[in-house]
Amino acid sequence: MPDFLLLALGAGLGVALVAGPLGCFAVWRRMAYFGDTMAHSALLGVTLGLLLDINLNAAVAFGCLLLALALVALQRSRQLATDTLLGILSHSTLALGLVAISLVSPGRVNLLGYLFGDILATTAADVITIWLVGALVLGVLAWLWRPLLAITVHEDLARVEGVRVSAVRTALMLLMALVIAIAMKVVGVLLITALLIIPAAAARRLSHTPEQMAITASAIGALAVTGGLAASFYWDWPAGPAIVLGATGAFVLSLLKPSRF
């Protein structure tokens, strides 16, 4: 197997492992549009990295985290409904990012790679970064698992039980922002939410408990990555979309079973 394919597989499996549990919370809390907003804002991070001449992955992560905090602040003001706010920011940040990149660095950035992923160009440093960030996110997620479940079931009840709802919700958004920043390398800006949502949606129909759903979602994501890379290698499909199609195939198969959870 070529070295570049092994690196791509390592990166994809790292993203799938951490995207599974976070995708479950995105499904439970109906946060799919939040993922789109974070993903679209990543292009602004790319522009920031080009302007400051810093590592683009770090710049993307910083941009996603900054927008996540801005969303938290705007939600607290309650001037607009959350879905309306996300809709405005999602498309505005994507358009602004595309325009900014074309003005700041015309011809220097492979926009198709950012939009649809460039996993076959993954380097060893990218794989290490993905696994380190993934381990950090999974560690924080395990620590906050019970409070996150509590606010997902009923926020007011969780608040009465002493859970710091705002802090836990903010932590979840920041974790999602980090994962979206590292996943952009794998499936691209336009397909990140699919990798988060589709495996979790498929796992929901196959699981009895939240923990089982999280593990199943990671497994489905890993299978989608493996199948997508195989299709890319043997049939010359674009890798990012092929991975998403693999996850979609798993979801279609899951529809054959009745929902359990």
UniProtKB/TrEMBL annotation:
Chief location of this protein within or outside the cell: membrane
Signal peptide interval: none
UniProt-listed Pfam families: ABC-3
Transmembrane segments: 50-73, 85-104, 124-145, 189-206, 213-233, 239-256
Topological relation to the membrane, as annotated: Multi-pass membrane protein
Naturally occurring in which organism (per UniProt): Gilvimarinus algae
Name of the featured protein: High-affinity zinc uptake system membrane protein ZnuB
PANTHER family (UniProt xref): ABC-TRANSPORTER METAL-BINDING PROTEIN, HIGH-AFFINITY ZINC UPTAKE SYSTEM MEMBRANE PROTEIN ZNUB
Superkingdom of the organism of origin: Bacteria
Matching InterPro entries: ABC_BtuC-like (IPR037294), ABC_TroCD (IPR001626)
Sorted UniProt keywords: Cell membrane, Ion transport, Membrane, Transmembrane, Transmembrane helix, Transport, Zinc, Zinc transport
Compartment list: Cell membrane
Gene that this polypeptide is encoded by: znuB
Family that this chain belongs to: Belongs to the ABC-3 integral membrane protein family.
Functional summary from the UniProt entry: Involved in the high-affinity zinc uptake transport system.
